[in-house]
Write a structure and sequence with these properties.
285 residues, mainly beta, Beta-galactosidase, Chain A, domain 5, five-stranded antiparallel sheet, globular, disordered N terminus
Length: 285
C-alpha cells in the first residue's frame, strides 16, 4: 500500500474518532409547551413567554430557572413536563421556583413613561436563531407594536446572546417607535414585595441586584436562595420603583438605537453560596 494512502486512511480514522465538542449552550422554540422560548448555558437557564400563553400571563418578564452547574437540563425538563406538567417545579438538579407574573421578571426591559413601565401588549410573536454553536447561541425575539401613550407606538426586537461559564446573558433591545424623538427604557428585576422573599439587595450606578428566597413555592418548599441582577452600562439612573415592585436601571434611546445590558442569576445550591459572593460577581460584570 502506498505511503500516501496509508496516511490518508490514518487521517480518516482519526477524524472518525474525533468527538463533537461538548455543547454548553442552547436556545430553542418550545412548541410542546405553550410557545416558550428557552435558553441555557452550563450555569443558568430561563425562558420567555410565547403567544399560546398570552393571558396566563401576557408578560415580557424573564422566567429564571435555577440549576446546578454542569449539564444542560432544559430539554430533559420539558420532556418530563409532557407527562407531569409540574415536572420542572420539582428539584431535578434545579427547578422553576421564580415568579414572573406581569413584570420584568429576572431582567427584561420596557419603556418607562410618566413613571410607569409600559409592557408589550403581547408575548413574543416570532423568533430567529441567528447564530448557533457549542459555545455560543444568539437569538432574536420579536414583539409587535403596542401603544405606550396616545401618540407613541413601540415595537421591540430583543437580541440575546448566551455563552458558557458565566451567570449573565447579554441583551441588545432595539425599540422602534414613532411619535417622539426619544424614550426612556428600563431594565429591571422583580423584587417580589407581595411574596416577601427579599433578603438583601444592592443598588448602584448601572446595576441592581438582589438575593432572595424562592418567590414561587406553589409546588414544593425551596431550601436554597436565588441571586438575580441587571447590569446597564452607562445607565442614566438606577432606583427602586415607587410601587416597590422593581429595581431598575434606565437609559434614554432613540428609535432604532440598541439598548444594551445584561441579566443574570444564580442558585445558592450551586457555586454561589451567599449574597456577598453574588454581589461581587455582579460588580465585576
Amino acid at each position: 500500500m502506498r505511503k500516501t494512502t496509508i496516511l490518508a486512511l490514518a487521517l480518516l480514522a482519526l477524524l472518525g474518532c474525533t468527538e463533537a465538542p461538548e455543547k454548553k449552550v442552547m436556545a430553542r422554540y418550545v412548541p410542546e409547551r405553550a410557545d416558550d422560548f428557552v435558553f441555557e448555558n452550563n450555569l443558568v437557564a430561563g425562558r420567555f413567554y410565547g403567544e399560546a400563553l398570552e393571558g396566563n400571563p401576557t408578560s415580557p418578564g424573564i422566567d429564571i430557572w435555577v440549576k446546578l452547574p454542569g449539564a444542560l437540563v432544559a430539554d430533559e425538563w420539558y420532556k418530563g413536563a409532557l407527562e407531569d406538567p409540574d415536572y420542572y417545579h420539582h428539584n431535578h438538579g434545579g427547578k422553576d421556583c421564580y415568579k414572573v407574573a406581569v413584570s420584568l421578571g429576572g431582567g427584561a426591559s420596557a419603556p418607562l413613561v410618566d413613571g410607569n413601565l409600559c409592557y408589550p401588549a403581547t408575548n413574543y410573536r416570532s423568533f430567529e436563531i441567528v447564530e448557533e454553536g457549542p459555545d455560543k447561541v444568539v437569538f432574536v425575539l420579536h414583539y409587535p407594536a403596542w401603544q405606550v401613550s396616545e401618540t407613541v407606538s413601540v415595537s421591540l426586537d430583543k437580541k440575546v446572546t448566551v455563552v458558557p461559564d458565566t451567570y449573565f446573558c447579554s441583551v441588545e433591545d432595539t425599540y422602534s417607535f414613532t411619535g417622539t424623538d426619544t424614550l426612556t427604557i428600563a431594565a429591571g428585576v422583580n423584587r417580589h414585595p407581595a411574596q416577601g422573599t427579599l433578603d438583601q439587595e444592592l443598588l448602584s450606578d448601572g446595576f441592581y441586584a438582589l438575593w432572595e428566597h424562592a418567590s414561587d413555592q406553589s409546588i414544593e418548599p425551596e431550601d436554597g436562595m436565588l441571586g438575580v441582577a441587571v447590569v446597564v452600562p452607562g445607565a442614566a439612573s438606577s432606583f427602586v420603583t415607587a410601587d416597590g415592585i422593581h429595581g431598575i436601571c434606565t437609559k434614554v434611546v432613540r428609535s432604532g438605537e440598541p439598548f444594551r445590558y445584561s441579566f443574570g442569576s444564580c442558585w445558592s445550591k450551586g457555586d454561589v453560596k451567599d449574597a456577598a459572593a453574588w454581589f461581587e460577581i455582579v460588580k465585576k460584570q
